[in-house]
Each structure stands twice: as structure tokens, then as C-alpha cells.
Amino acid sequence: MSDPLAQLAAFHSLLAQGLRSTSELSKAAQVARSLAQSDMDGGGAFLLFALYFESLVRLREGTAVDAEKYENGMTALIRLIQECLEAIESYDPITLHGSLDSFAKTALRLQLP
Length: 113
Prior knowledge:
This protein is mainly alpha-helical. It is 79% helix and 0% strand.
């Protein structure tokens, strides 16, 4: 899947599924990393998402996870990622900056897995 628009659609689809399993997180990380390497705008955002998802996979392996905390946290983070995607798709760097800042602060506050 080398077409960035197809990859973006796949990324949207993965986010809509909720990223509940480590396999979904791994797949989302792969797609985000691929988008970061493509000619699509927002490469830095996609790399940030890829690194965050890869980190979550490592943290979740062999660790007991509070399912409710994880699901509530991912719901909030996915909403912020979707805001970032909307800003990327509408070429709105100011909104993207604010959305990425909100994502980073929320991710640090939640301390998932």
C-alpha cells in the first residue's frame, strides 16, 4: 500500500476501530510510519503517532492493563489524533500545532498503557 491517500484511509479506519489490541496498535504504527515517509504533508505528526503507538505496544506486552483506563484514554487520544488529521487534510498548520500540543500533553497526563 504505497498510495498515501489509501494509507491515510487505512489510518482513519484503524482509528475508528479504537486501537484496542496490540496488533491494531502495531498496524497503526506501520501505517503512520509509512505516511511519515511519504510525500504527504504532516510527516512529523505521523512520525510522532508511529513512535507513540510503538511505545504503547512495548509497554502493553507482559503488563496488566486497566481496560477501562486504557479505553477511556485511547478515546481521548484518538479524538485528538483525528483533529490533527483534519488539520493536515485542510492544510491548517496553526490548528495542527494546537492539536499536536494537546495530543502530547494528554498522552503525558494519561500515562497509558
